[in-house]
Amino acid sequence: MDTATGLLVDLRQAPDSVRVLPRGRASGRYSCLACGRALELCGPRNHTDFTARFRHTRHEIDRCPAGPEHLARVRAAVADAWALAEHLAAAAPAVRIQAAVTATAEPEVMPVLALRLETSSGASVIHLPHGELSDHQVDRILAGGDTATRQWVLFDRHDGAHYRPAGQVRVRTRRQDQHIDKITPTSCQRRLAQAQVVVAWRDGGTLLLPFGGHPITYSPRAGEDWSGSAASWQRDWKTSQPRPADGAAWWGLLSLPLRALAAPALLGAAVTAMTDLEAAQSGREAYRRGKARERYAQQQTRLAPARPQQLALPLPADTAPSPDSTTSATDQVPQIAAQTPAAAGPAPGSGPAAAQESGPHRWRRWRRLLTRLRHR
Ligand SMILES: [Zn+2]
């Protein structure tokens, strides 16, 4: 790694890249991606017979102190970054792509590689974590951003540390049923999503973009009955987008082609998909409220033969249901409100006596009762 530029110097991928670099230790400019130690760049600048190389020491045999397993993982991560770079370059040949390093290795923690993309519409950096991200590495990702550069953190769908499945959610959008994968985000993924970073996953040639899922309960309105079989319909969920909001119970993942990373115009499909989700949500609410109103109407029709005068005539004062008289207030209050359109006003038959009763007199009676109870 060239610490002066943050770029990955890979002699196998781009042997010519070292031509312009100063030889020797260059004041600690080069560091090993696996162990983090300073390296020395050896070899003449222009000599076709001699391959330039980086060395940890001047000993006969140069060895990286990192363990063989860690070294293998770092090599795999580098190969993976180049494979993604090739995929994106094939999809968008005009885009300039460089491999970089966001955060170097820490003991037991993999370095974070990145791809820097320059397109005609702007620059972006795609950070590629492998395995767990340390807090320090998250700090590095967040510190490295500027407002002009779009920052991505691209997790791997097949890395157990990055992807915690949480079932699926079924949504009907544009008259088609969709099954969307849900995940439980890690605390680090939540933290990144709250910052100005786009958190995403890749799965082969697919890019997965998250939206937030929030459980909600529809508050009953006048003329709705959510009891019985309708009770489960009262519970639903809503989205938060374009990025999951803080407090989302789960994240859903929308699919786009992976090349959208290099072709921002393709990201428009995600905006459409998220708008569709919101439309589906309003549709669900309207449909379910309609069902709750139907249920309420059926209930009323069933009650009608027993008390027919209730529908046609105002109730006499002595039989008018009082809100205080029912214990299941949530069931009864909306029904009463629907029967009397002016529900906010005085109840039918409430004369001066009734008004008095609900005023300070009633409170005094309560106080007397409480005092009596205390003295018992
Ligand atoms: Zn090393």
Order of helices and strands: EEEHEEEHEEEHEEEEHHHHH
What's the overall geometry?
A: elongated
Head-to-tail CA distance between termini: 84 Å
What's the number of helices? Answer: 8
Main sheet summary? 10 strands, mixed
- Uncertain parts: 310-359
Q: Approximately how much helix is present in the residues? A: 25-40%
Number of strands: 13
Strand content: 15-25%
Based on CA atoms alone, the radius of gyration comes out at 33 Å
The helix-and-strand class reads alpha+beta
Region (Disordered): 285-364
Protein name: Competence protein CoiA-like family protein
Biased composition (Basic and acidic residues): 285-296
Biased composition (Low complexity): 302-356
Brief write-up:
This protein is an alpha+beta fold.
Description of the structure:
By secondary structure, the chain is α+β, with helices and mostly antiparallel strands. The protein is 31% helix and 24% strand. It is built from 8 helices and 13 strands. The chain has helices at residues 68-91, 135-143, 187-194, 268-303, 309-312, 329-339, 352-358, 360-375, and strands spanning 30-31, 38-42, 53-55, 96-103, 112-119, 122-128, 149-156, 165-173, 176-183, 198-203, 206-217, 235-240, 250-257. Strands 4, 5, 6, 7, 8, 9, 10, 11, 12 and 13 form a 10-stranded mixed beta sheet that branches. The longest helix has 36 residues, at 268-303. The N and C termini lie far apart (84 Å). Bound molecules: zinc ion. This is Competence protein CoiA-like family protein.
